[in-house]
Amino acid sequence: MLTSGDVVHLDLGAPDGREAGFHRPAVVVTAQQILEQGPSIVHVVPLSTTVRGYRSEVELEPDALNGLELRSVAQCQHIRAVSPQRLVATLGSVGSVALAQIRETLAALLDIRA
């Protein structure tokens, strides 16, 4: 079963314009209570090793927990709703601190106030 914060490898297909695409890792950001119900769609934030310095990026260092091989950024500006069938494998987890940073960045992008 998927868990919020999981780093998954997925196939986003061919990108259009500046969309994130192709095969790449991403962080699952769907709420755990939704994941436990076996949703038909999950929300992910794609990862990239290209750091552009946008405020919408959250930096992630590779470690044994997240399964990343290279320093990456969560591209919060590219949040996607995808079918779980696009998920190829689970690599690890970003952990609660990085997941909170990603969610805070998403809230700022979407102008969501707690």
Structural description of this entry:
This protein has one domain (6-109): SH3 type barrels, CATH 2.30.30.110. It is built from 2 helices and 7 strands, in the order ββαβββββα. The chain is globular and about 35 Å long. The chain is 17% helix and 32% strand. Strands 1, 2, 3, 4, 5, 6 and 7 form a 7-stranded antiparallel sheet that branches. The model has no long low-confidence stretch (mean pLDDT 93). With 114 residues, it is of the alpha+beta class.
Query: Secondary-structure element order, as H and E?
Result: EEHEEEEEH
Whole-number mean pLDDT:
93
Q: Please compute the radius of gyration using only Cα atoms.
A: 13 Å
| CATH class value | Mainly Beta
Shape: globular
Structural class: alpha+beta
CATH topology category name: SH3 type barrels
**Count of the separate structural domains:** 1
Number of helices: 2
Q: Which helices and strands, and how do they pair?
A:
Elements: E1 6-11, E2 23-28, H1 32-35, E3 42-48, E4 57-60, E5 72-75, E6 80-82, E7 87-93, H2 95-109
Features:
114 residues; alpha+beta; SH3 type barrels; 7-stranded antiparallel sheet; 2 helices; 7 strands
Summarize the structure.
By secondary structure, the protein is α+β, with helices and mostly antiparallel strands. It has one domain (6-109): SH3 type barrels (Roll). It is built from two helices and seven strands; from the N terminus they run ββαβββββα.
